[in-house]
Design a protein that fits this description.
about 375 residues; 4 helices; rod-shaped; 6-stranded antiparallel β-barrel; Helix Hairpins; Elongation Factor Tu (Ef-tu), domain 3; alpha+beta
């Protein structure tokens, strides 16, 4: 019996201590809550800019591939990547490797033309003597004179044909040899994929030909990028774009949107649309072709408007509201009309004054 009373007494004491601890803790928390106060913020003037980013690269608007006019072996390369060239500047020289069948045929043609010329000269000389003696009329001699002239022209044509096959240019053409590969535009040499000794093929209906050099005007650049289908309808031709170059820290270059593809392409499960923007370089500014770049496209913006932090706003259905201080640690709900938001800052249209103190939620301070 005595042992049971002792146990009961101990249990009672423990319960009393627990109850006392709970009561003290409750009183402490109550005192703490009563001492709590909330920070406030006021509206301020600021800018809100809604942007989207398109990834892409910087490319020349026109990159011209220079190809030979005749097949052969590269004898000399006169430029390297980075050189500036003007239209007509020789980029490389080619040694013609003649086709043996064509060469043999051309040589045979020349021999026949010379034989015919000798025969025409003898006939013309013989009949000229008869004309001078008055034996034949001038009209009769004219036939032999014409035949002589035709034989001479055939020799010239056969010689030119042989020269073309051997050297790539006719003897009487008066043009620069087409074994000289020249630039067709003014610009910078971007690439020279051939070296001395390489074989090159002329462009024709069956072959696009060997590229000897790539030349482009590096002052006429474009940004080529892609943008997601969810944002493409927010774009319009003529929009201003700010380009940031990955390889050049801190550099921002303006551009103007000039093309939006009418057809999207699926990439990694999303539909992407190609865009193109004209890069606006300042005088003397230089960018390398192929630089990766990001295009920051401004979709909408508000400049110097009254703004508040998005975190200050609470929502009830379609209604947005804030709580403003009306006395010390006393707040009152005010419905507000909001404008453009970038997810962090929102435009304040109406509902409270510019000097109102707005409650900062979930950030109580304790005295």
């Amino acid at each position: 019996m005595k042992k049971g009373r002792v146990i009961a007494l101990l249990v009672f004491i423990v319960l009393v201590l627990v109850a006392a601890g709970y009561t003290l803790n409750h009183l402490f928390e109550q005192e703490k809550q009563e001492a709590a106060s909330f920070r406030t913020e006021q509206p301020r003037m600021g800018d809100i800019v809604i942007k989207t980013v398109a990834a892409g690269s910087i490319q020349p608007r026109q990159e011209i591939l220079i190809k030979p006019q005749i097949s052969g072996i590269v004898r000399r390369v006169l430029v390297e990547a980075g050189d500036q060239v003007r239209t007509g500047d020789v980029i490389a020289e080619v040694t013609v490797v003649p086709d043996m069948g064509a060469l043999s045929s051309a040589e045979t043609r020349l021999q026949r033309a010379r034989i015919n010329l000798e025969d025409a000269e003898m006939n013309a000389d013989r009949n000229r003597s008869l004309l001078e003696q008055g034996i034949i009329a001038a009209a009769d001699y004219q036939v032999f004179d014409i035949a002589l002239k035709q034989a001479k022209e055939e020799v010239y044509a056969a010689e030119d044909n042989l020269k073309i096959i051997q050297d790539g240019v006719a003897a009487r053409s008066g043009r620069t040899s087409n074994t000289m590969i020249a630039a067709t535009i003014d610009g910078m040499v971007l690439d020279v994929p051939v070296k001395k000794g390489n074989s090159v093929i002329e462009a024709n209906n069956f072959n696009e030909g060997t590229t000897v050099a790539a030349v482009a005007d590096m002052q006429d650049l474009v940004f080529l990028g892609k943008i997601d289908e969810s944002e493409v309808e927010k774009l319009s031709v003529g929009m201003d774009i700010q380009l940031t170059i990955g390889a050049i820290e801190g550099l921002t270059i303006p551009a103007a949107l000039e093309y939006i593809s009418p057809k999207g392409v699926e990439e990694a499960g999303a539909i992407q649309f190609e865009i193109k923007a004209a890069v606006q370089l300042t005088k003397g500014q230089f960018l390398r072709a192929g630089y990766s770049a990001n295009a920051n496209v401004v979709l909408d913006e508000r400049r110097e408007v009254l703004v508040i932090a998005e975190s200050l706003v609470q929502y009830e259905g379609q209604t947005s509201y804030v709580e403003i201080a009306v006395a010390e640690n006393v707040f009152e709900r005010r419905d507000v009309d909001l404008g453009l938001s970038d997810g962090i800052t929102v435009e304040l249209l109406s509902g409270i004054d510019a000097d109102a103190s707005i409650k900062v939620w979930n950030q109580p301070q304790y005295r």
